[in-house]
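Researcher: Please predict.
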Amino acid sequence: MGRRSPLPVAILATVLAGLHTSFVSTGARPQLRTQRVARKAEPEIVDVEASALVKLEEDIEAQIQKAEADQDQSRLTRLSRLLVLTRSSAAATAWQTTKELKSKVASSMASAISEFVGKEDYDINDVATKVEESVSSAVTKLDNVYLTAEAAKAAPEGTTPIILTDVVRPVAGQMKEAGKEAVLAFTGKEEYKFGDISKEAAKRAKSAVANLLGKEEYKFGDVTKAAVNKTMDAIGDFTGKKDYKFGDITKTLLRKALNFLEDDDEKSEKK
């Protein structure tokens, strides 16, 4: 038998030495040292509170294109209506006063609407009801939440209480307005193309937001109105456009509104 090359032995020794130095002694048991690994930057989605709605819009738009290719007009109508509700949901997220509320409202609205993406037999009002239930349940689990303004008087001094009705009522109202606009836009009697659907959905979402802001039963502050107007401007920016990536409309309108609420309007205008 010939003499074994020393190279494999040297490589093995180097590997063992590396493993040895990857552990730090803590007495009874070794622990693996945390090592930094360079990661590819993730694509921007706006903020954690916006990501659920952006992903939902992407999913609905992709399925709209598939339904169009399959010539499934009934499914195309249902998905188009849900697209209007999703874009209107972004406005309902924009007027929330804290990041925690924005996150809860956005994720719970997206979760509720997504349950209907694969369904066939339902009324558009069922979606609004489900959204209201989902948002109520999510917000109730937060700290310092009170059912009414009167009950909120018992909140600890120096804190900012969350009044459940102030959050949920306008969200539910927004969904009802969006539902009306969605049904008016997509009756199921016409043939739709993807570009036309997206354009009409943006138009109807903007109209639903405007309708809600104009109702006296909902009391919106000046800052809230300005923030929601930003979302309406963002929707309008896309109304006449044909080329954009899935999720761009919701992503952009949320960025503009959230930047405004965080006193970063200048940044919003530059993007």
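Model: The mean pLDDT is 75.
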